[in-house]
Amino acid sequence: MIGSDGRAGRVSWASYAPGESYLVVTTGRLRRRHRVVPAGAVTTVSEGSVQVALSRAEIEHLPLLPDPQAPVADETVEQMLNAFERAAAYTIKQ
Fold it and tell me: CB atoms < 10 A from the CB of 90, how many?
C-alpha cells in the first residue's frame, strides 16, 4: 500500500461488506501492526499496488486489530471512519 507520502505497508485482508468496506494494512517490520483503513481512502488500484489518500502518519492513527482476519467491531469501524474524516478535513484545510 502506498500512502500520500510513500510506502505505508501491505494489504493483508479486505472486507467488501456493504456500508463497511475496509482494508487491513500490516505496517512495521519488527513490530507488525494491523490497521483498519476505510475503502473510501483508496484512490488508485493497479497491479500489485493500492494507493490511498492518507499519509503514513495518518495511517498510524487508525484503529488496530490483533490479527488481519480478526472481526472488526462496530466501535472499531466508527473509530476508523472518524479518523479518516479528521484526516480528510485536515487535508482540505491545507
Answer: 11
The per-residue pLDDT for range 37-67, each reduced to its tens digit, is: 988 899 999 988 999 999 999 999 898 999 9
pTM above 0.90, yes or no: no
As a whole number of angstroms, the distance between CA 60 and CA 55 comes to 9
Torsion of CA 61, 29, 56, 43, to 10 degrees: -110
Q: According to CATH, what is the number of the domain 2-93? A: 3.90.50.10
Q: Tell me the domain boundaries of the chain.
A: 2-93
Report d(CA 48, CA 90) in Å as an integer: 29
Largest CA distance in the chain: 35
